[in-house]
Amino acid sequence: MAIEGKDNPHARPIRLGMVGGGKDAFIGAVHRIASRIDGRYELVAGALSSTPEKALESGRALGLKEDRTYASFADMAKREARLKDGIEAVAIVTPNHVHYPAAREFLKRGIHVICDKPLTSTLADAKKLAKAAEASDAMFFLTHNYTGYPMVRQARELVENGDLGTLRIVQVEYPQDWLTVEQHNKQADWRTDPSRTGLGGSTGDIGTHAYNLACFVTGLAAESLAADLQSFVPGRKVDDNAHVMLRFAGGARGMLWCSQVAPGNENNLKVRVYGDKGGLEWHQENPNYLYFTPFGQPMRVLTRGGAGMSASIGPATRVPPGHPEGYLEGFANLYKEAADAIRAHQDGKPISSLVPGIDAGMAGVRFIDACVRSSAKNAAWVKLDG
Amino acid sequence: MAIEGKDNPHARPIRLGMVGGGKDAFIGAVHRIASRIDGRYELVAGALSSTPEKALESGRALGLKEDRTYASFADMAKREARLKDGIEAVAIVTPNHVHYPAAREFLKRGIHVICDKPLTSTLADAKKLAKAAEASDAMFFLTHNYTGYPMVRQARELVENGDLGTLRIVQVEYPQDWLTVEQHNKQADWRTDPSRTGLGGSTGDIGTHAYNLACFVTGLAAESLAADLQSFVPGRKVDDNAHVMLRFAGGARGMLWCSQVAPGNENNLKVRVYGDKGGLEWHQENPNYLYFTPFGQPMRVLTRGGAGMSASIGPATRVPPGHPEGYLEGFANLYKEAADAIRAHQDGKPISSLVPGIDAGMAGVRFIDACVRSSAKNAAWVKLDG
Amino acid sequence: MAIEGKDNPHARPIRLGMVGGGKDAFIGAVHRIASRIDGRYELVAGALSSTPEKALESGRALGLKEDRTYASFADMAKREARLKDGIEAVAIVTPNHVHYPAAREFLKRGIHVICDKPLTSTLADAKKLAKAAEASDAMFFLTHNYTGYPMVRQARELVENGDLGTLRIVQVEYPQDWLTVEQHNKQADWRTDPSRTGLGGSTGDIGTHAYNLACFVTGLAAESLAADLQSFVPGRKVDDNAHVMLRFAGGARGMLWCSQVAPGNENNLKVRVYGDKGGLEWHQENPNYLYFTPFGQPMRVLTRGGAGMSASIGPATRVPPGHPEGYLEGFANLYKEAADAIRAHQDGKPISSLVPGIDAGMAGVRFIDACVRSSAKNAAWVKLDG
Amino acid sequence: MAIEGKDNPHARPIRLGMVGGGKDAFIGAVHRIASRIDGRYELVAGALSSTPEKALESGRALGLKEDRTYASFADMAKREARLKDGIEAVAIVTPNHVHYPAAREFLKRGIHVICDKPLTSTLADAKKLAKAAEASDAMFFLTHNYTGYPMVRQARELVENGDLGTLRIVQVEYPQDWLTVEQHNKQADWRTDPSRTGLGGSTGDIGTHAYNLACFVTGLAAESLAADLQSFVPGRKVDDNAHVMLRFAGGARGMLWCSQVAPGNENNLKVRVYGDKGGLEWHQENPNYLYFTPFGQPMRVLTRGGAGMSASIGPATRVPPGHPEGYLEGFANLYKEAADAIRAHQDGKPISSLVPGIDAGMAGVRFIDACVRSSAKNAAWVKLDG
């Protein structure tokens, strides 16, 4: 393992702000841990809650200085942009409908944005955000965190290297069970409220992850889809289960299932890809293994950091094979790579990065939008860019 | 374990004939083993091949008497029906297009039929066979053999007992990889020839198994489906991969994937069912386990013959838990139960049986037909009884 | 799959008798199914119980003729030996202490013996049985049935081919849980009674299987062992758990654990072997897979009948890869191979066979004896041939 | 998930120093990540290498101030103890033989010690270190990091709650394969050099982890053991494989296997415990699951954070069930709990903690010592406190 290398100017901790992520939030704490794991960020400012007292209280709890704890993201963006040691990047970890207005404020002031997924709660917002990102000199990163898992990267390499041959079939699924019955808590409430989560329920919250993962691994994009969405729990206003058929550019076909009402599934994200030369399979819940079968040969079990891994994956692992890495390390890979990209950008030497950005985000929102449109037409095929 | 109990008149071996199953056949040998495992049948006659010499040679190899080795199923049906000790039942293990003409000959002479799946190669034949079966006093059994697995029976019981609550989601899949590239051999040839296999390729050969399994476990039937069929291997005349969305009577929704071109999959049939109270999962390749999760509780691993099994499943197992039973034992359960039904029928005391029959067969052919019709209409929803 | 080939004189069914295996027995029914699966035997005589009425009743249930249902194995041996169409082979499926006296009667009359394990209940009996077998022209087969599993054969081939290099470590275990608490039933009673089961409890019943499996796969024999035996259940007269360290000829070392009191284990037999070039692992409860890792390469999952299997294993499988075979098919392989050997012997053209015989049986009894001797000396090392 | 809570004085980052962990080290980086994950430590000083330039270079890379980068741990202990904002705790991550001399310097100056395992390279050093710890007001923590895994804690709770009944059997194993052939690199070199690693090779490096885990989960200590150690790789001066039988106080018996030469095993640590009421099993390589079987009931799969977990485990998890946590999060739990204990100690309100300390360390060294003594006597039973 390498020393962390903070003497490298690129590795000096980046001053980070956070929008959302106050008390009772879930994903904010995940982002904070992910930012800490490799020591590449220092959290120095926050607009942690839309409730002023909670924002203050949460900032205090996190050890933020009082004058850098803000009651709104707009205030934070304005003031931090003027500070000499203001934040260089901001993590946006709010419910979906706040992603666009928040990101806009920082992007227009040249502050890099690390935003949770999906990109926005509406396609209209997504388009505006895309423009805002394009107009800005700052970078935009979207935490489709499953792309940070080393074995997902390895899967992508196998495809890219042609080890699967011409791709034919993509099977991806993301079942959960936590919304099997009606739930009332902070996490469930906004995720089942169309005004905050957007039109898609399970499709937006986890379907986008599944779709993103399929695209990331295969390098393909869906041209059209046919979706049959359900809201099984009485009174639920957004889908809690979705069956989707996909047609990818180039001829591959796929199926995507996402569900929040499948008892026995926690975060059972799986992706399987088949070509005319081989197949692969990866499971998020035991993520350190990749199952690869060259057609006509026995299945090989690739392990994170073990024999047969591409050298390029090395920097995305921290401990020896057999010592499992998990969700937070995968998430941290995105933060680390975003840090590399930010420092390179500041040096005027931009680098390419695997961290998803606006394009992946736009693809995700188009996916949700297409699912909803298709389902409204009795699961007719619709184009994703329609 | 019980003694085999042949003193019971019901248990006296049944005189069995076979149509198909000569040299180089696969499924014929499976039927013969399945018929022998519990000692309930004695193979005494055969029309084992449509090639006369091969029929003779195969009959000799199997130890059949020469005068009971026939050159055609029609000859066999005629003569056996007249013999005092003629066959009581016949196993039909030919390519699909022969199922109907062969079954008809035996049914009309009151000889019970045990037929491989799918029921027929066309819907027209299926309807005719259904009429022939109705007109006959003989019984008709269809070897959707996966229904014979004890844990599949247990899954069905859990659903029936309400342990899953109201069913919402059915996920079933049957991927294989043996047709990933063009193949030429006895098994591949007829399975990829529409004139023998029927219009459906993977849908007919394995999709029907998957669909049957889903229906058997849930007790549900699909009302409509939307199917996207592919023939990935250049020149292939039938589908080798199918993506299907299902809508069941009563509101449950499903997805079905079958494939013959998914490298790394041998006979990877899996079924998962979710209701508002629980979920279950079963894998054919390790069939002695059933994964059952009551919502809000830890997953329970039920084992064949182990704790928590329904008493009714007992007779379908032969060895203690932890000693795996497999494909042949599941298949043998159908043969054993057909034997029970035949003897009861002969005694004039008909019994109910879980062995699939004409109805399941008709449902399977309707499934294939609907898949082909839907796919031809760009995966539009079609009714199964359309 | 091949046709069963009964026209081949070698394949003509062998006339089989059975000693033990009456009502309420377990292993007798297993032997009968195993003998039927490939159609190579016909059960024609039996001394099925030491209780005359039960013997008669069981024979009738099995469809045996009354005059070939015997009240004692001695009667059966005498009369069958004189019959023109008397039995050619006998299956001995009694409690352990009857193995020797029964086998002796048949061996001395030239009737081939297929005997359940362990060979005998005492070392003295084992030596006498070995002499009896040597003195007889008939063959003796011992159903260490786990050696019949195709993937166990494949494991043996990998070792034999040098794919593991020089062997260093053998880890074998066979935990069960059915005797966790005091039990009273036919199966438990004789297995916990030293006068019937022998001095070893778990060591005799399952430890011998584990030891045999380790030797079969590796081709090694233990020179010495150190055993710590326990009888955890109060009042139990034989061991119900055993911890054993092994030293093999040639320098490999091993550990063996067998237990009847390990809750959560049904028949959880596993073997792992490691050499300087690779390692392998096999699990009885999911027996169609073999995990093989050449050192420095990813693990390969070999599947029964799949890619990478040795051609020699082919005849030991019946259905395509992905269709699981289980305990009964493995058992049936021994019966089929014994049939081949018997027919070849009758033709005066003896063939070699992988079915365990007297030597493996003697090794098993020496293993039990050594375990008991070592444990009595506080787990001191003892020689197996001591 | 809770906010990190740094406003709580207990949660204010602890000033941390590090001994060892410079360039090319492995475990130092692990400790640093573990210390960062929950934001409870700030690394401010280091004696990172015994080579002065490397120490300086490593310190610079880590962003340490030059005047707090030391050429020796002795210098660091002396100066930091005098600084107003000197380190409050030190992480010792050197090869084993340095643990004692380094720990002594900090303990005698009241600086808390977080030390990697095993405690020391010799029993003599261990005894001296125990005295030094007792004499000091500072606390001593030993990173037997596997005890930090939530499901290991859950296993311990099940035992403690009596869910397994009276314990009978403990099976623990820790196989690796990285030393299957001779290796020369920084990690391998000191681990196979008795002057740095101590007398035990695999027993010291991983056997102690296995033994510690068994004791942690069961609450038992071994009274005596019999060990058969091997050095399979020619020329290796310490054991690379060990077979150990254990006798625990109270009557439970165990087996322990550790190996560095078992191809196909990375860090395949597993523990299984059986009592008269139930059994459990845990695997380090997929650590988010615990398999628990109450005798006579189906196995239950407990998941980290899922249904059926003890409330007390909650604080040791960070993300929802189904999102895997791994090695680093388990390690971080020890750091977090050490931080809680240090702050409480500073407040004069000591709290109990599950982090292993001197006693566990002493038990580990006694375990190694007993293994070596027993093996030298041909695996005779020896007492651990002998």
From TrEMBL, chains A, B, C, D:
Residues 152-281 form the GFO/IDH/MocA-like oxidoreductase domain. InterPro entries: Gfo/Idh/MocA-like_OxRdtase_N, Gfo/Idh/MocA_oxidoreduct, GFO_IDH_MocA-like_dom, NAD(P)-bd_dom_sf. Residues 14-143 form the Gfo/Idh/MocA-like oxidoreductase N-terminal domain. It comes from the Bacteria. PANTHER family: CONSERVED EXPRESSED OXIDOREDUCTASE (EUROFUNG), OXIDOREDUCTASE. This is Gfo/Idh/MocA family oxidoreductase. It comes from Roseibium salinum.
